[in-house]
């Protein structure tokens, strides 16, 4: 009997011992996982609200000083000549390319224009046609120095700029007439004055800006600057001189045109390369002095600044 009791007691002790051992094991495991949890918390600390990740550095684009002398926003006037070695786009003679004369005529067989400008102009003319305005006539397009010299010598003083100081020398401007009469009275002139900005063109020498441009009112002379610039200039009633001064002063502006938001930043290049944040979609233009304007936009709505946003579809990739 004693043996039996002793046996039960030993068995009980063994069973108790095993339970106790398992319980301690559990406690140790729990404690360990507790430590792990704390470590995790500590590791996660930098991601807690109020401690954001280090901001990603934007990709940078290097702008070289020569970029101050290329692009659609170049300021050409009596003070700032056409830059040396200016890059010219492909120029076509419109008399030889009658296939390009869509909805407009030419004054004579010498009219030349950059090929992409013909496209931009046609786009605008198609929109005018919808408003019943159809008598456009190009009277001057691209002019080389020789042609400009000829004009300078022939015309009254103050009417033509000296060679090397005309936007026509870069193919950025055209003189547009009407077969119905003088542009200041003709429907073509009135339509352009009100609507050209929608297609990237500006009336370069308005009647009330002679003090700033130094040039008398020219209801026929239209300059291409591209969107969104033409729309912003229209909104603020700026000529190119004023617009560039405004950008230099503001350094960066944001404008929404026809549902698309643009950021326009001015960078002074001086004589050094500079690094600027690289945006997904952008275009650059110099100011022909010492600055570069970067126009950037998001890509959710459109791929590019579109000339003639209301009617044009072909212009999206043309800039
Ligand atoms: Zn002109």
CATH class of the largest domain: Alpha Beta
| Tally of alpha and pi helices | 7
Helix content: 25-40%
Query: Largest beta sheet, briefly?
Result: 5 strands, mixed
Give the end-to-end Cα distance, rounded to a whole number of Å.
Answer: 108 Å
Output the strand order for the largest sheet.
Answer: 3-5-6-8-7
Number of strands: 13
What is the typical, i.e. mean, pLDDT? Answer: 81
- From the helix content, strand content and strand pairing, which structural class follows? alpha+beta
Q: Report the CATH architecture of the largest domain.
A: 2-Layer Sandwich
Which descriptor suits the 3D outline? globular
What is the beta-strand fraction? Answer: 15-25%
Find the CATH topology of the largest domain.
Muramoyl-pentapeptide Carboxypeptidase, domain 2
Which kinds of small molecule does this entry bind, naming each only once? zinc ion
Q: Main attributes?
A:
13 strands; globular; binds zinc ion; 4-stranded antiparallel β-sheet; Muramoyl-pentapeptide Carboxypeptidase, domain 2; 2 domains; alpha+beta; 319 residues
Structure description:
- With 319 residues, this protein is an alpha+beta fold.
- It has two domains: 2-47; 60-317, Muramoyl-pentapeptide Carboxypeptidase, domain 2, CATH 3.30.1380.
- It is built from seven helices and 13 strands.
- A five-stranded mixed beta sheet has the order 3-5-6-8-7.
- A hairpin with a 4-residue loop joins strand 12 and strand 13.
- The termini are far apart.
- The model is unreliable at 25-49 and 307-319 (pLDDT under 50).
- Bound molecules: zinc ion (ZN).
């Amino acid at each position: 009997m004693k043996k039996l009791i002793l046996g039960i007691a030993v068995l009980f002790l063994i069973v108790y011992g095993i339970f106790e051992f398992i319980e301690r094991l559990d406690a140790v495991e729990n404690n360990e996982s507790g430590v792990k949890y704390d470590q995790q918390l500590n590791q996660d600390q930098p991601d807690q609200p109020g401690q954001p990740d280090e901001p990603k550095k934007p990709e940078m684009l290097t702008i070289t000083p020569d970029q101050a002398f290329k692009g659609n926003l170049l300021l050409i006037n009596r003070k700032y000549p056409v830059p040396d070695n200016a890059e010219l786009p492909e120029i076509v003679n419109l008399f030889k390319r009658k296939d390009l004369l869509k909805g407009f005529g030419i004054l004579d067989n010498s009219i030349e224009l950059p090929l992409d400008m013909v496209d931009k102009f046609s786009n605008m003319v198609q929109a005018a046609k919808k408003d019943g305005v159809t008598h456009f006539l190009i009277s001057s397009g691209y002019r080389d120095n020789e042609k400009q010299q000829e004009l300078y010598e022939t015309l009254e003083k103050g009417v033509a700029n000296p060679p090397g100081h005309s936007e026509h020398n870069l193919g950025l401007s055209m003189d547009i007439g009407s077969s119905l009469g003088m542009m200041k009275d003709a429907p073509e002139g009135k339509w352009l004055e009100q609507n050209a900005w929608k297609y990237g063109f500006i009336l370069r020498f308005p009647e009330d800006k002679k003090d700033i441009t130094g040039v008398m009112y020219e209801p026929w002379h239209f300059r291409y600057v591209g969107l969104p610039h033409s729309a912003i200039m229209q909104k603020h009633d700026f000529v190119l001189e004023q617009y560039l001064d405004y950008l230099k002063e503001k350094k960066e502006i944001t404008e929404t045109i026809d549902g698309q938001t643009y950021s326009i930043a001015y960078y002074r290049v001086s004589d050094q390369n500079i690094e600027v944040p690289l945006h997904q979609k952008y275009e650059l233009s110099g100011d022909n002095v010492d600055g570069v304007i970067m126009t950037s936009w998001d890509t959710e709505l459109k791929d590019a600044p579109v000339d003639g946003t209301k009617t044009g579809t072909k212009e999206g990739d043309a800039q």
